[in-house]
């Protein structure tokens, strides 16, 4: 899928998922970050890849001891990204790796996560187009 073409489908397929341990390590060491509490985005411009943006989500085990709660929050993060990724896909020609972190200590509602995700992606667009 080309970045210049508007995104028509709202999928979050296997190719779009960030799984490379080396790239995740590089994100933490070299990546830049943006924050809209309770979400934090760590991003890094990368070389050519099969999709413009690869993304991953994570939730702190320190804040959420129960795996069921961590997995629920990760599902909410992935879903809100999936629905709003067109904001980034349609506004950039470069390739990025994204890592979304949930920093809050309470279980969020989907509408809250989605509104914060929109703000975070708008902030990202503003930063890369400076």
From TrEMBL:
Keyword terms, alphabetized: Endonuclease, Hydrolase, Nuclease, RNA-binding, tRNA processing
Keyword tRNA processing: yes
EC number(s) on file: 3.1.26.5
Top EC group: hydrolase
Catalytic activity: Endonucleolytic cleavage of RNA, removing 5'-extranucleotides from tRNA precursor
Stored Gene3D superfamilies: 3.30.230.10
Known role: RNaseP catalyzes the removal of the 5'-leader sequence from pre-tRNA to produce the mature 5'-terminus. It can also cleave other RNA substrates such as 4.5S RNA. The protein component plays an auxiliary but essential role in vivo by binding to the 5'-leader sequence and broadening the substrate specificity of the ribozyme.
Protein name (Swiss-Prot/TrEMBL): Ribonuclease P protein component
Taxonomic placement: Bacteria, Pseudomonadati, Bacteroidota, Flavobacteriia, Flavobacteriales
């Amino acid at each position: 899928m080309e970045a210049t073409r508007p995104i028509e489908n709202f999928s979050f397929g296997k190719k779009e998922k960030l799984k490379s341990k080396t790239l995740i390590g590089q994100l933490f060491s070299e990546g830049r970050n943006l924050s809209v509490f309770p979400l934090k985005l760590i991003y890094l411009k990368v070389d050519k890849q099969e999709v413009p943006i690869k993304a991953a989500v994570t939730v702190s085990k320190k804040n959420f001891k129960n795996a069921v709660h961590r997995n629920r929050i990760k599902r909410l993060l992935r879903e809100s990204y999936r629905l709003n990724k067109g904001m980034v896909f349609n506004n950039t020609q470069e390739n990025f790796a994204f890592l979304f972190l949930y920093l809050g200590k309470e279980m969020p509602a989907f509408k809250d996560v989605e509104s914060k995700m929109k703000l975070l992606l708008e902030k990202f667009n503003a930063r890369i187009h400076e």
